[in-house]
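User: Here's a chain of 167 residues. Predict its fold as tokens.
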Amino acid sequence: MIKIDTRLLDEISALGKASPRRRMNYNFHKEYSDTLQRMLNAMEPFSYIQPHKHENPDKREAFLALRGRFVVIEFDEFGNITDHTLLDPLKGNFGAEIPKCTFHTIIALDPDTVAYEVKDGPYSPNDDKNFASWAPKEGSPEADDYLRNLLDKCNYSFQNQHRNVLE
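Assistant: Prediction complete.
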């Protein structure tokens, strides 16, 4: 049995905070060839995940909020926001599923945010993500302003408040 508890979330969050990317995955699947990829994704505010889609091979992806709050945003082919939702387990907004071939990103609003992520497999770093050409690349100087702009368009902002549904 794999147990997901506060101790595990704290360990993964600490690794995410120490990472230059301000996030860390913890994989439950043992092989990249697994047809169901399952992981924890610990994220800090300003961790930038370049909008992308899973296409060729087409994959669905779902996010469940375990701790903190994060925004899930979908885009059209030109970078226009088509839908968004705030996942906040304390407000009863637990998850979102992204259809295959849909541009999307997630943005942590609170420190120590942790998502449970499920995605069709197998995983191959060569074709897992098709990054949006209209969005800044991860690590670029424009990334922080782009994140703020996305949140402004969706009427959200980064918070310092720590919230934990498991506590």
